[in-house]
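Summary for the lay section of the report: proteins are chains of building blocks that fold into shapes. Here we show the chain for Putative glycosidase and then a coded description of the shape we predicted for it.
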Amino acid sequence: MIDDTTSPDFPRTMPAHPASSPGTDTWYNPHMHRSPRRTSGLLFASTAAALVVAAVAGTAPAAAAPGDPFRPAMHYTPARNWMNDPNGLVYHNGRYHLFYQHNPSGPGWANMSWGHAVSTDLRTWREQPIAIRGDRDAEIYSGSAVVDHRNTSGFGTAGNPPMVAIYTARYRSGRQAQSLAYSTDDGRTWTKYRGNPVLDRGSTNFRDPKVFWYSTDGSGGYWVMTAVEALDRKVVLYRSDDLLTWRPLSEFGPGSDYRGIWECPDLFPLPVDGNPGRTKWVLVVSHNPATVDVLPPVPDISPRLLKGTGTRYFVGDFDGTRFTADGPPRFVDDGRDFYAGVTFNDAPANKRIMMAWMSNWLYAQQTPTGRWRGAMTLPRELSLRTVAGRPTLISEPIAGQGRTVYSQRDVAVGPDDVTLPVRPRAYRVHAEFRPGTARRFGLTVHKSADGAERTRISYDVAAGTLSVDRTRSGNVLFGPVFPSVESVRVPLRDGKLSLDVYVDASSVEAFAQGGSHTITDLVFPNPASNDISVDSAGGQARLDSLTVTATD
Ligand code: FRU
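The coded shape description reads as follows.
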């Protein structure tokens, strides 16, 4: 979201609701060629040690909820109405809290308030009453939450430390300033602080405060806030002893390589390669190149800008005052639908867990989901691993165990594509591929019986790139830039590509090589398009292993 006054190309009003009620949608089937559907007999072209290691189960397609075909099974969505950024991610007294940008009264972006859900395991979420409601004075934009263990704010007591939310109040005048609300009943009810705002620069684009406790030697420390001056493409850092009064520390930016705006920063330390003696800091910033709303594609706009919104990160150092980057930013996720990613405060065992909003401002308000709109990505545990000589963010999804419904080992793939005999509604596919003689190999999911509708996750051997192709993934016509192919360079490791793909009713999240590369994309397939197939082109690839785990 961008400033109301300076960004006229951003849709401020709810667009006409797309003709999206299930049954009346036009499913996009431009290519009606047929591909063989083979679900029995010999599954793979080569029999070399083909081995079914698990019973095939769940072959009947699980039904989508009537009238709600895109509601995910393993991703958080509000029961009704609009959701964007995750806010206030914090763990407290055995529960993970997910607050989020929410319109309590409609499926379009408006009336910003903080919705709320809780979970004990990051897998199943229970929606709670609205936590912080926008009012006539101000809307409640993005921010963070802390547990004020030392009761520095005085909102609680030593025995019952308060939860404190630090959010952006977006006033009717357009001014954006940082404000507080607190809860002394484990996040059930929230009170806005009377002295709001607590930090005001007189700016109309100062927002998205992420606050964390910065420990110094022994038991000392102070609160650090990162926020953005969005249009200036700057992260501004402040410190406080009590969350009430703030003084400036430093600034990071402005970004020079980019035309868009910066939003939703986060800053946290991580050990490199698991070595606690070698810590680097990661600064996450979401980028919103709102200037490219005017598509179809213009030749001189780089593919990066066509991507719309995305979350990037810098690796560097933070000395308690200033962040310095070791190099340019990289994408946390190379798909289209991973925005406003931020991490939990106080997660158990020092884990660093990120969630992001699974959408893109380029078309977020048009997605054809009906009475609800907006889903979160799977939570992902982050770590730093040295890849090609530099610390690289690794993302590992957190999802339920599920049950294995199909498994194969050591088989050849190709030349025909082979449809698996299982069709779970939500699932993970784990595949270990070797290219063999193939030019391209991969998986197809959300595939219709005639093969015309499909989402392809494939590897181009010569280019060394992994792609997710959603150009024929179902309903792709609700937004002009929705049909797309996302690609990222993924070097083979020991001659292999390891792939984990999480497939839900309206999304695909692909994790390659253990999470060093990820692609997250929304898709809106016909619920009957639920075949999974494996294929190669130009030769035979090999699958060391293939496992399908139902997660719904
Ligand atoms: C990011 C964002 C934030 C803002 C919020 C408003 O998607 O634009 O910068 O606080 O959404 O809903």
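Put simply, here is one thing we learned. The chain has two domains: 81-397, 403-550.
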